[in-house]
Amino acid sequence: MMMDAEMTERCALCRRAAPLTRHHLIPRTLHRKPRYRKRHGRERMQTAVLWVCRPCHSHLHRTLSERELADHYASREALLSHPDIRAFAEWLGSKPEGFVPKSPRRGGGR
User: Fold this and answer.
1) Does residue 101 register a pLDDT over 70?
2) What is the pLDDT of residues 50-70, one digit of tens each?
3) How far is the CA of 63 from the CAs of 12, 24, 70, 96, 108, in angstroms?
4) Is residue 110 part of a domain?
5) Is-contact 88 97, C-beta < 8 A?
6) Is residue 99 part of a domain?
């Protein structure tokens, strides 16, 4: 929903200047579900996006399920109210430009 120039240049969560990805506030996999069509409406589901950097985008999907995102975190303010997401965004925002966090290990590590 935020389309001003600043949001297309800086991550909406950590505020760093970085290449941005489009995060659908209502995940696209839920767009055909009647519950979400009724609650959010077709136009809102298609246009409600947040421009975020890849590390923040990955963290959102690691932290919350698609249903949680649609049911409780369908705005920037709601996302930043989640303690893990806020902490990650604040931490990443304090890092120098060009910093890329290491991805967590999958499968529990060794």
Assistant:
1) yes
2) 999 999 999 999 999 988 988
3) 17, 15, 13, 24, 16
4) no
5) no
6) no
Domain containing residue 19: 5-93
Amino acid at 70: A
Backbone phi and psi for residue 51, each to the nearest 5 degrees, phi listed first: -90, 115
DSSP string, the chain: ---SHHHHHB-TTT--B--EEEEESS-GGGTT-HHHHHHH-HHHHHH-EEEEEHHHHHHHHHHS-HHHHHHH--SHHHHHHSHHHHHHHHHHHTSPTT--PPPPPSTT--
Asked whether residue 102 is domain-assigned, the answer is no
Prediction pTM value: 0.77
Sequence-distant (6+) residues with CB within 8 A of 64 are 73, 82, 85
Domain count, the chain: 1
Name residue, tokens 């950097």: 53
The answer to whether residue 98 sits within a structural domain is no
Instruction: At 15, list the tokens.
Output: 């505020």
